[in-house]
Amino acid sequence: MEKTVKGLSVGSVLITSWFATALSGIVLLQAYFYYRSKPKNDLKIFTILIVVLLLLDSAHIVCIMITIYHYLIENFGNNDALGELVPSLALTVGLTGTITFFAQSFFTWRVWKLSRKNIIAPITFLLQIARLTLGWVTTARAIHYGTFDDWATKVRWLFTTGVSVAVACDILITGGLCYWLHGSRTGLSSMDEAIDKLILYSVENGLLTCVFSIASLVCAIIMPGNLVFIGIHFVISKLYISSVLTALNTRNSFRARKDRVSMKPTLNMFSFGEGTSGSARDQNSFALHPPRHTPRGLGVITIDKTEEVHISSSKNDVTNPTESFNIVATDHGSTQNHEGAFDSVKVMAV
């Protein structure tokens, strides 16, 4: 029975290390897409965040490889070595806690901006600090005791508490994002569609990390005699990094789509009107006006473009024309104030 438990422990660590390594490759690919598509005026803090997360992920993978080498290569056939808890394995817990802290801080900042500084964001941040502290205290005590028997009796409660706090943070962050995004809906179809997609992405990111964290927590409670829980825990850090990169790449995709739409207005949504004669401004202008009878429930965007040409007394001295745009969003035939929705999408696009 003891041999079976030890075999299950080593097998779970080996198999989950493969998945963790594969996910690290996917994370690197996501990082490449981010640096390839990020706008030139993007906040530098995002670049620094991605670099820090990738460095932490590299250290995490190195610790996993050292652990695998210790149990399966250096101590192959030595059953006594399977009872030892090597420092490299303990370090993965602290590194996962650090990665979780940075990733959740990124989403907490979004909640803070989106909710207009609601108290839920500071509460979530305090929980994140607690999660980070518990992760490194778990690592320190595991290294100090150095055996899985002591882990089960003296350290496991720290690990399960830290994972529980991380799950609570994920639920608060995901719920907060969905609540304030949903409250920003305006009835304007194009804007609501963008908000719905942002809500979907938020739920997907939060749900994935929650599921794996809960699975690791349950395994640690009901199966303390093997390492299935720590194997699942290997994967969690990769999912957090992936969620941050997914959010940033989705933001870049929204920006690119917005730019394409703004450069190519569809003709069936607009009618061309002629300027009224009587002034130089009107004679050098055209306007895009919505049709008189707009279908109920259809949002229309009116774009007024003005081109001004300045001519001096010299025959050949004509300055370049200047253009100005005025964009007004209307719905049901009247102009509406969509500041809340625009602010929500703007925050998620920062």
TrEMBL record:
- Key word NAD present: no
Organism of origin is Pyrrhoderma noxium
TM segment ranges: 12-33, 45-73, 85-107, 119-137, 157-181, 202-223, 229-248
Database matches in InterPro entries: DUF6534
Tell me what this protein is called: DUF6534 domain-containing protein
Indicate whether Transit peptide appears among the record's keywords: no
Q: Which PANTHER family does the UniProt entry name for this protein? A: CHROMOSOME 1, WHOLE GENOME SHOTGUN SEQUENCE, DUF6534 DOMAIN-CONTAINING PROTEIN
Limits of the DUF6534 domain: 166-253
This protein's UniProt keywords: Membrane, Transmembrane, Transmembrane helix
